[in-house]
Structures are given as C-alpha cells and as structure tokens.
Amino acid sequence: MQIWLPFRRAASPTTARRRILPALATAAVTALALSACSAPTNTPSGPEFFDWADVQIAADGQTVKLWMWGGDDQGNAYVDDVLAPAAAAQGVTLERVPIADTKDALNRVFTELQAGRNTDGAVDLVWINGDNFRTGKQADAWFCEWTDLLPNMTLVSDSDPLLTEDFGTPVDGCEAPWHKAQFSFVYNEATVPNPPTTIEGILDWAEDNPGRFTYPAAPDFTGSAFLREVLYSVSGGYENVPSVYSDDAFAELSPALYERLDQLAPSLWREGTTYPATSEQLTKLFADGEIDMMMTYGPATLTALVENGTLPDTTRVLTVDDGTLGNASFFGIPSNSGNIAGAMVVANEALSVEQQVAKADPAVWGQFTVLDLDALSADDRALFDALPQSPVVPTFDILSQNANPELSAEWVPALDDGWRTTIAAR
Amino acid sequence: MSAGTTSVSLDKPVVHPPRRMPGDHGSPLTQSRGVARVLRIVSTALIALWFALPFLPLVLWSFANQWMHPAAFPMEAGTDGLTAAIANGGGLAFLHSLLLSLVVAVIATPLGAMAARALSRGHVRFGKAITVLLFSPVLLPPFAAVLGLNVLLLRAWVPPAVGVVLVLVAVAIPYTTFSMRAAYAAYDDGFDDAARTLGASSRLTLWRIHLPLIAPALARSAFLAFLVGWSDYLITLVVGGGHMITLPLIIASSASGVGNESSVAVLSLSAVIPPLILLGFIARTRNLDPGKQR
After folding, report:
1. Where in chain A is the domain with CATH 3.40.190.10?
2. pTM score above 0.90
3. Does ipTM top 0.90?
4. Comparing A121-125, B136-140, B245-249, which segment has the lowest mean pLDDT?
5. What architecture is the B97-137+145-284 domain classified under in CATH?
6. Residue B223 CA, distance from chain mean position
7. CA A346 to CA A417: how far, in whole Å?
8. Which fold has domain A52-178+328-393?
9. Does B258 lie at the interface with A, CB-CB under 8 angstroms?
10. What's the pLDDT tens digit per position in B205-229?
11. Is some CB atom of chain B closer than 8 A to the CB atom of A313?
C-alpha cells in the first residue's frame, strides 16, 4: 500500500519559487552595489544667500538638529529651555542630539559626504572647536563664509585672536563663536589656605605636599592643555614659544618641560605611577578629597557642581600671575546640511545679547560671553554687569587677565607623544 | 444486568499527571543531598550576590541628591536624579528604545528560527559556510562594519529608521539562530509527522503543534534579539543619524560628564528593569500544551 507522505511533496510551484527567490535576491544586491558605486563624491559648497532676509525666508519652518556633547545637564537644559524657544519664535525648531563624543557627529557627516548625500545631511549644527574643527576643515566638511551674514556678528570683535583662530586654525567664517573658556586651576580653600600664584608655584606646592596633586594623562584634552601651560612656564612665558609648530622649536623647548614633569612625578598622586585618564576622573578625585588641587578647561560648570554637592563648598578657582590658556567654542554647520538657513538663524540667535546674558548666568550655565563688552550699548553692558557673582569662579575679566593664546594644533600631538614616551614610560 | 459503564461520570474532569519533558527539574536522579546540597545552595547564593551587588550602588545613587567620598551612604535622599533624567528626555527615549527593540525581536526571531530549522535538519547545501556567514555580524568589529555599511545605506537612500532596524536585525540574527539551533537539535520532528498523518493541515500543525512546542525557545531567542536593540549605542546613533534618541544614547552622553551620577543611575536602572521583567516571563514559559482544544 502506498503511504501518502505529507512532507515529500514534489509539486512544481515550490521548486520554481526556490529558483526565483535567490535570483531575485542576487539581482537586488547587485543593483544596490551598482547604485552604491555610481554615486558621485564631490564636496558640496551649500546654498548661496544674498542677505539676512534671504536666510530668514529660507529658514522659516526648518527643523535644526544640533549635535552636542550631552555630559553637562546645565548645557542641555539651557539649549532645551532657553535657546530652543527663542529659535521657535523665529520659525525654526531646534532639536538637540546628545552625543558622548563630538567625533560621532563628524563621523556621521564624513559618511554622508562619502556616500554622496550632499544636500540632506542629518547634522545641521555642531558644538565644536579645536581638533574636531580642524579635521572637518581639512575634509572640506564645513559650510563656510556664512558668519558675516549674521546680524549679531557685529557685537563680536573682529580682531579678537580667540575668535579669529581656533587652536591655530583660521576660522575663515566656517564657524560662529558661541562661548569662551579659560583654563583654570582649582583648589580646595579648606586644605590649601595659602594657594600659590604662579604655575611654577603650583608645581613647587605639589612637591611640598606629596600625593595631593595630579593631572590627566595626555592625550586627554585637559591633560594636554596642562602640558602646554607648563611648557609656557618653563620657557619663561608664552611669548617664548612660537605658536606655529616646528621640529626645531619642539627640540629646543620640550626637554625642559619633560625634565620638570619628571622631577615632579614622584610627588604626584600615587607617586606618579598612574594618572587619571580623563578630566572627569580628575574631578572625581578632587570631589572625593583625594587631591587638593585640580584643573579644568570648563570653569563654567564649577558653580553648579558646588551647588549640587559634587564638589566641596570650599572649592575656589585659582588665578595665576602668568595667565592661563584661553579658547572659544563655536557652532559649525556641515556643508551637506539640509537646513543651513535654519542653522544660521539659531547661531545668530545664540549670539544675541539676551541669549549671551542668560547663558552667562551661573545659575543657568555660566558660560563666558564671546561678545565685545566694550562695543555694547550702555544698557546691554549693564545686563552683563548685573549678572550674579559666582562664589566659586571669578568674573571673566579677572580670570582671563594676561590670557595666553593657544598653540597651533600641530603642537598638541607632538607634546602628547613626548609625554607618553618620557613621563608615562618612566 | 446493568452495564457498569453507565456509572462513569463524564462530567468529572480527568486528571492527567503533568506532562514531563526532558530537562524538567525534580528528577530524583539529579537531586543533590548532604554536602553537595549545601554547596549547591551556597554557590547559588554567592553567584546571585555577585550579580546583584552592582545594582546596590545604582539604587542608592538613584535616590541620592548628595553623596560625597567618605560617606558610606547618600548624605541626602531625594528625586533630583529622576527630575534630571526626565529633563534630559529619558521618558521619550525609553519609549523609542522599547519600540525599536520590539521591532528587532519581532523580525529577527522568526528569521532565526527558520534559519536554525533549515540548518539543523541538514537540507541546506553549504550549511557550514552559511553558518559562518550568519555569524559574521558578531565576528566583525562593529565600528568598522557600521561605518562601512552606513555608506551603502546612505547611497541606497534607505530611510534612517529602516536602516537602524535592518542593521540591528542583522546583528540579532546570529543570536536567534544559535539559540534556536540548540532548540531544534532537541526537537522531535515526529510530533509534526504524527499530526500530519492524523490529517492536520500544515498550517494547523505549525499553529497547534510546532509553535507551542518551541514557544520557550522562541521566547528566549526573542529576548536575545530584544537585548540587541535595547543596548545598542553605535548603530542607533551613526545609522539613525539622530532621528532616534534611545536610552543608551542618553545614558552614554550623560555618563560622559561629571556630577550626573544620580540621573545616570536612574536612567541605567530604567534600562535594566524591562529586560529583567522579560526574563521573569521567560523563566515561567513552559511548553504551551500542544494540541489543546481551545
């Protein structure tokens, strides 16, 4: 008797389907690969605008995605609660994309450009400076020559070296200033009653108080800024260090730096056998009372950190006679953004007196303004003068006294590598 | 003479002993006694402690407004962390994460099950090569793979949300395939054959016999696929292009700063709870009584 086997059907439709499906799949993959290869990869230059009114018309109804480092709650709240409503009043929706590292935004832009997506990029605006700006500029990824169109740029000094060069890279209208920062040494008033007043004095203090001082390992942003501070100090001031990098200048000046740091190392936290990897870890050590002095390139956040109890009440910013490094951070617009006009409106709004005053309030964010205070009207100037004083951080004009310019970006990896081979490998 | 059979009451429910399946616990052969029993309990407790301990500071931080170094416990309790987590967009991110992970699980689980069934029954040519191919998304360094793949997706004008789901499904398939292969290795096709010889259609067999029998394995592999979507940072950010702000994005960006410990703790806890609940459900799944009349 023939048994009917349900699983051994020899019906033809199934076999036919078995042949068609792989063929279809292969065809689809080939088509995808071909379309991927044929796309052009030239760099876009973005739209052209004649005047500001032109920009405003184009911006109306656009949604701008601002990619910014999201590790600062105050900064996030300022953008969401203060800047975004102001942008909305001008017809632009501002959405924040929180990222752990600004390089994530650059990666997205580079990938889009590589894929030939030149007019509808997902990144409209980036909070940026220094190395990331330079990388983007080298890759022609920024929309340029747009800052002159912003009406509020007239409030910014066009001869301020902090704003015309970003870590030695000419800005060239490829980014609009947002705020300034000043490298600051921070100490605990309760444990350091007589703080030193110079960089050399800080190093001497560290040797007199073994284990109470350290700095983040280069290439951390703050750690490598500390190397530049000490380089200025051991060279007898920033005037003696040429801002443009050369092998000769490095060979002449760097040995004194590493010799000084080598001498200092045994007096550091854990005898200099290990260093905090990031400035966040350094701040944590200070917060936990393991060290009495630290440093930061973002003194703006200190007030809030003291208020919420992360840092002790006796935290104070140290002003040093030799002055410290200063820099500015900016808004960059990728050249392939689909909402360039909207991004320009946001950057312009962020430069307005109202926004800069609100942002400078330590209770809001405490970021130093980029506006030229001397060029403001008396009324506007009064708004800045009326800002509440932080008990922790001095005002910007005191903090930035005798401010040192940043070295060009090529210095940074050279100094970092030297530190790694001489100090870290001790 | 009255027939004895008439006295059988049909209303009385027939009590079957619970159906035993291979691997069900409680067999006298596998029960430990004496020292072995004590060792088993102690080691279980230690492992449970090892798993649970990291959550203790997380819970404490979640409700700590202030907690500085020398203090063993938070100095001031409160909900600042929760407020900050919500202000950072934690609520919406939670919903996005949930939706994304469910979509990934719903697509990757049946695909993995089908691949596993075909591979384990050996009617696939080049089975070994296909297995290696299926596992390649796990073997490649994710960063390189994602950046390269993203160029392709962008050139093909794949919408960002679809792209994220496509790539995450590809990452999840090795896990679902692997866990379903183990299930199919222990699965007896005789159940299906028996149902078909008794006249059940193939659809009815799948629905009433096959799926109920592999339900626990399906739940396990769906859980793995869910976790792939739930924990991803890189693909969601790079391929999604900021269109989809999920919980890992908020956690990573918050955790990269100082002084956000309590909001990061609240966000991390809220990221741990849904998988734990799912895990609880999976621990309870048994074979759904195959062939039951509903």
Report:
1. 52-178+328-393, 184-324+405-424
2. no
3. no
4. B136-140
5. Orthogonal Bundle (1.10)
6. 1
7. 39
8. D-Maltodextrin-Binding Protein; domain 2 (3.40.190)
9. yes
10. 998 889 988 988 999 999 999 999 9
11. no
